[in-house]
Amino acid sequence: MDRRTIALACTAVLAGASAVYAQSGPEEALTNLQKTVACQSPPVLAAEPTNAIRIVGSQDVVDRSTFGKPEVLVLNAGTGRNVQVNDIYFVRRLMRGAETLKDKLPHSIQTSGWVRVVASNETTALVSPEHACSDIRAGDFLEPFVAPMVSEGGVLVPLTQGELDFALYSKVLHGEIERRSIGTNEFATIEHGTDRDIKVGTRFAVYRDLRLTQNPLKRIGEAIAVWVGPSMTLVQVTSARDAIFTDDVMVPRTADGVKPAPAPPAAARGKK
Questions:
Q1: Nearest 10 degrees: CA dihedral of 110, 115, 89, 49?
Q2: What are the DSSP E strand ranges found in the chain?
Q3: Which among 12-16, 84-88, 155-159, 266-270 has the top mean pLDDT?
Q4: Residue 77: which pLDDT band, with cuts at 50, 70 and 90?
């Protein structure tokens, strides 16, 4: 394909982008809570996808690898991979540090934002960021966008629940961007998900074990499940009288009519 043919193809793609660029997306339909939850790390661990659709650059006149909003970004796939105009995708990447940069292990996933497809041909597509949670980078991969399940008005309604069930506690794994401390209105990832029948709206009391002889657990906060995976759950801390740390425990409330297990002096000390 000569340069003139390539130029004509690019012109056609950009013309299509101009026609749909101004269309409204889910940004206007999502509540503030939905946007906040959608920006969090999914409650799963994942390995680097091998055949992912990825961002490879932008339509800028200079070569850059970090992008924001507004932008027109280029994908490495198009209609041949069923990438259609007006499709919406999450933009994500694995959380890696210097010591894990090239390993093959599963990692937490960072959500960079979500984008709308504004033009697509057989092998290439252009997207426009609809929402940026952080910087978007070349190499970030795409996943289909699914709006978080929250109630009308953007307020999570807790499930009808009663007493605390200390037999089903879960440890705090980390906070946002794998931080080790979490405050009120922030998010934390905890052990267990659908494997413990946790649902969106399940409430938790947060406890700390000071590991002192004959000293009970200290109640330090409350949280609610906002995103449930197979073996992990994302919760939002609704109140806390101290920072919540990795290895603190969250104790779910049992459904009405279910007899809970009694609270031991230090529920977090034993192995599950």
A1: -50
A2: 55-58, 66-67, 73-75, 88-94, 109-120, 125-132, 136-137, 141-144, 161-164, 170-175, 181-182, 187-191, 203-208, 218-228, 232-240, 244-245, 249-255
A3: 84-88
A4: very high
| pLDDT exceeds 90 at position 246 | yes
Q: What is the pLDDT of residue 2?
A: 42
Please tell me the predicted confidence (pLDDT) of residue 215. Answer: 77
Q: DSSP code of 64?
A: -
- Least Cα distance to 68 among 159, 131, 12 occurs for 131
Q: Which amino acid is at 255?
A: A
* Run of H or E including 38: helix 32-38
Residue pair 211/199 in contact by the 8 Å Cβ criterion: no
Q: Domain locations in the chain?
A: 3-144, 156-255
Domain 156-255 adopts which CATH fold?
Answer: Thrombin, subunit H (2.40.10)
Under a CB-based contact definition with an 8 Å cutoff, are residues 251 and 200 in contact? Answer: no
Residue 115 has pLDDT above 70, yes or no: yes
Residues in the chain, overall count: 272
Q: Are strands 141-144 and 249-255 parallel, antiparallel or unpaired?
A: unpaired
Which residue is associated with the tokens 């037999």? 167
Least Cα distance to 216 among 245, 238, 249 occurs for 249
pTM of the predicted model as reported, rounded to 2 decimal places: 0.79
- Give the mean model confidence (pLDDT) for residues 8-26: 44
- Residue 21, pLDDT > 50, answer no
The Cα 258–Cα 117 span in angstroms is 48
